[in-house]
Amino acid sequence: MDQSIDARPATPSRLTRARRLLATAPFTARLGMVLLAIYAFVAIFAPWIAPYGEVEVVSRIPFDGWSAEHLLGTDQLGRDFLSRLIFGARNSISIALVTTLISFGIGCLLGVFSALIGGFVDQAISRFVDALMSVPDLIFILMILSIFGNSIPNLILIIAVLTSTRFFRISRAAALNVASLDFVEAARVRGENLLWISVHEVFPNVLPLILSELGMRFCFIFLSIAALSFLGVGIQPPMAEWGSMVRDNAALINMGDITPLIPAASIALLAIAVNFVVDWLLNRVSGLNEEG
User: Fold this and answer.
1) Model-level pTM?
2) How far apart are CA 11 and CA 9, in angstroms?
3) Beta-carbon count within 10 A of 196 CB
4) Among 8, 109, 118, 232, which residue's Cβ finds the most Cβ atoms within 10 Å?
5) In the predicted structure, residue 122 carries a pLDDT above the cut 70
6) Helix (H) or strand (E) holding 116
7) Which 8-state DSSP code applies to residue 238?
8) Is the pLDDT of residue 99 over 60?
9) Using CA atoms, how far apart are residues 218 and 39, in angstroms rounded to an integer?
């Protein structure tokens, strides 16, 4: 009996495609991925990595120096600085990530819906977004927090709503280009509702561009939370947060101690790592080739 031979090439597995993708990534992108993996590991396993508890007072001496028992010394209340730094990673990154995802959902869904509906509704939403974007974010956040209180849910919701305006602008602009294509018109003719068209037809085609913005917005939100905590209106004690750790231990700088600069360096390093990865993703989306 003759046996037919399938000459079609085997489809590479997801793991193989991921390896090829990483192999073509530039050094900066791979460095960013490694740093992000380290940050994620520390944030997830903070309770098991930290030598002491987040609010545990371990020394009667405030601002105790570096030692074998306390590798980075203690803070102004005698708490282990290294443990606070590790728990600060969990608190800062998790709150910024949740805020970014909420902002992403609000802005993208509203932007796609606005592009598909068009007309007066689209113009009304766009003008409202323009009005929100015209107000300086930090001043607006400080004003709202002074009215409703600086709890973590309020902080997340306020920053998410303000940041969603950026996602709205990008998703709406991208969706307007996709909405005029034939497959979207075919879905309208079939009688599909706006939600189905948004989720199945428009959103998958604008997602790569929006994902690059997602990383940029995460950096912005992370830095905003750190700045608010530095000013005393962000994440409140006794929760550890890198911005507030810089403020609370700033007196050590006058003594020639660089310990307060470690949380600041951690903030900067995370932002750099995210930007390395985002730049690479943006180049891939735009079709640019990057050597190195």
Assistant:
1) 0.84
2) 6
3) 12
4) 109
5) yes
6) helix 81-117
7) T
8) yes
9) 14
Which residues neighbour 215 within 8 Å (Cβ) at sequence distance 6 or greater? 274, 275, 277, 278, 281
What sign does the CA torsion over 71, 74, 79, 82 have?
negative
Tokens for 217, please give them: 């917005």
Angle, vertex CA 250, rays to CA 244 and CA 253, nearest 5: 150
DSSP annotation of 57 = B
Give the chain's domains with CATH numbers: 28-53+70-286 (1.10.3720.10)
For 8, counting Cβ atoms within 10 Å of its Cβ (0-12 exposed, 13-18 middle, 19+ buried), the class is exposed
DSSP string for residues in 171-213:
HHHHHHHHHTSHHHHHHHHTT--HHHHIIIIIHHHHHHHHHHH
The amino acid at 231:
L
Mean pLDDT over each residue of the chain, to the nearest integer: 84
